[in-house]
Amino acid sequence: MKKQYSILLFMLLSMLGSCVHDYPTITEEGEEGIDPTLVQINTEVTLDLELVPLEIITQKNVRTGTTKATSDYRRRFIIEARRDGHAETRQVTILDEAETENKQISLPINLRLHAVEYTLAVWTDYVKANSGTDLYYDTEDLQYVGCTVPYTGSTDYRDCLYGTTPLDLRPYRDEWNAKVQVSVDMVRPLAKYELIATDVKDFLRKTRKQRSGGKAFNVTFAYGFYLPTVFNVLSGKPADSQTGVQYTVPLTIPTDGAEECSIGTDYIFVNGMESFVQLSIEIQDERGTVVARTTGLEVPYCRGHLTTVRARFLTNEMQGGVDIDDDFEGNIDIDLDGLLK
Predict the structure, then answer these.
(1) How far is CA 261 from CA 35, 67, 90, 196, 229, in A?
(2) How far apart are CA 261 and CA 258, in angstroms?
(3) Distance between CA atoms of residues 19 and 15, nearest Å
(4) Which terminus of the chain has fewer Cβ atoms in its 10 Å neighbourhood, N or C?
């Protein structure tokens, strides 16, 4: 009987011992028992906000460009940890204040990921202040970020940047409460152009009567052929294009004696580094009557660069394109006055 009691006591002690676990201590967040394979990811991004002027014909009037959010807009960041073709987790943050000159930003986003391999994808654009909804881009799928409809041009807040980086967390397996700082360099997937009218005084003289009656003028920009309108953040390339894209903006003419004025700008998703877009430009009065037209204008562009085209857009008609030196380096600043008819 004594031997039997000894066996029962040994079995009871074994069962009690099997129920004892070493629980982790309380973490900095006040949580207990967090999966030790979850790794906290803190993200820092570097923004290249400079647009380098491109020039192939002249060196005069070189312009540079940057975009920063004002009080009416806020910069939005979307960050995804992707694995096996889909997003394992997605977080969105909107900066509380208008932008400063600081090009490095530590995002207030902390991802908790399992210790496996990911691709970290980051997209940044602009939204209206106090609103997190899409403004100029549909960002539901970072592999198919598309321009919203109707198409909007001639606004600096179509600017955007993206970045990706591989993220291998396997070395952190079995590490408790591991934290990893990840840096992502953000680049612009766009080229930008600006059209400058050089015939402001002639236009003011010819339209004096209409303007005295309070009539307004608009500018319509229509793209020929296919225009890239969708971008894949993961591949870093445009994913789709459309025909028949156009936009209309009010024409604002300075009355302070200036001889030039900007009539329109736009951003274009770039497939590769260099290409061109074909534009038709119409100046219309408030009744829709065309008072000036430019057709078949080929505007060269390069990713991350600003192309400036100057011509008598307000008072003349012209046709034809611009030849591009394929070996150019530096800036594009095109003066088309000599091509006008």
Answers:
(1) 61, 19, 43, 6, 27
(2) 7
(3) 7
(4) N
Helix, strand, coil share (%) of the chain residues, nearest 5:
10, 45, 40
Average pLDDT of the chain, as a whole number: 80
- Beta-bridged to residue 218, according to DSSP, are 250, 284
**Residues whose CB falls within 8 Å of the CB of residue 56, separated by 6 or more in sequence, listed in order:** 300, 324, 325, 328, 331, 332, 333, 334
Dihedral of CA atoms 165, 170, 176, 180 in degrees, nearest 10, equals: -20
For residues 54 and 82, give the distance between their C-alpha atoms in angstroms, rounded to a whole number.
36
Q: Which of 210, 243, 224 is nearest to 314 (CA)?
A: 210
pLDDT at 329: 34
Answer whether the bond into residue 150 is a cis peptide, omega within 30°: yes
Name 47's bridge partners.
186
Residue 281: name the closest of 192, 209, 194 by CA: 194
Q: Phi, psi at residue 275, to the nearest 5°?
A: -165, -160
**Which residue in 137, 114, 334, 147 sits closest to 242, CA to CA?**
147
The residues pairing with 246 across neighbouring beta strands, listed in sequence order, are 222
Distance CA 104, CA 44 (A): 7
Q: Cβ atoms within 10 A of the Cβ of 316, count?
A: 17
User: How does pLDDT run across 76-108, given as a tens digit for each residue?
Assistant: 999 999 999 999 999 999 988 766 666 778 887
